[in-house]
From TrEMBL:
<dbReference type="InterPro" id="IPR001041">
    <property type="entry name" value="2Fe-2S_ferredoxin-type"/>
</dbReference>
<dbReference type="InterPro" id="IPR002888">
    <property type="entry name" value="2Fe-2S-bd"/>
</dbReference>
<dbReference type="GO" id="GO:0051537">
    <property type="term" value="F:2 iron, 2 sulfur cluster binding"/>
</dbReference>
<dbReference type="GO" id="GO:0046872">
    <property type="term" value="F:metal ion binding"/>
</dbReference>
<keyword id="KW-0408">Iron</keyword>
<dbReference type="GO" id="GO:0016491">
    <property type="term" value="F:oxidoreductase activity"/>
</dbReference>
<dbReference type="Pfam" id="PF00111">
    <property type="entry name" value="Fer2"/>
</dbReference>
<keyword id="KW-0560">Oxidoreductase</keyword>
<keyword id="KW-0411">Iron-sulfur</keyword>
<dbReference type="InterPro" id="IPR036884">
    <property type="entry name" value="2Fe-2S-bd_dom_sf"/>
</dbReference>
<protein>
    <submittedName>
        <fullName>(2Fe-2S)-binding protein</fullName>
    </submittedName>
</protein>
<dbReference type="InterPro" id="IPR051452">
    <property type="entry name" value="Diverse_Oxidoreductases"/>
</dbReference>
<dbReference type="InterPro" id="IPR036010">
    <property type="entry name" value="2Fe-2S_ferredoxin-like_sf"/>
</dbReference>
<keyword id="KW-0479">Metal-binding</keyword>
<feature type="domain" description="2Fe-2S ferredoxin-type">
    <location>
        <begin position="1"/>
        <end position="77"/>
    </location>
</feature>
<dbReference type="InterPro" id="IPR012675">
    <property type="entry name" value="Beta-grasp_dom_sf"/>
</dbReference>
<dbReference type="Pfam" id="PF01799">
    <property type="entry name" value="Fer2_2"/>
</dbReference>
Amino acid sequence: MSVSITVNGKHHVLNVASDTPLLYVLRNDLQLNGPKFGCGEAQCGACRVLVGHDATYSCVFPVGAVGAARVTTVEGLGQGKQLHLLQEAFLAEQAAQCGYCSSGMLIAAQALLERDANPDQETIRRELAGQKCRCGTHNRIVRAIQRAAKEWRA
């Protein structure tokens, strides 16, 4: 079956079953390594991508359900060598250790900032509840999102 999707601004027509998880298409067919396979059950958030403006667990989201929405992975946040302000804030706050959760955290943060340009700590923590970080850098991640939010508003 042929599926048509737009990922990071590029249109693709792929020969995949419509019930194939979006994560598999992103990683295997489009060679995008930002979204990670973590649990396969929408519990850890390592696989999250934006589908439209919604942070979506791509490990359980069928590629056929994307429809006309645009998909954005962490690779699509920045512009070439220019990092996105969230990526810069994560670096400045040393918010990543192993980095496995980082792409999902960045995507969740992007979705949050698109809805709320001035989130408080409680809101950020609530929005990140679906993201797991085994390294324990949650406090740094929250600070990074707050830093990015300041720049977002400026």
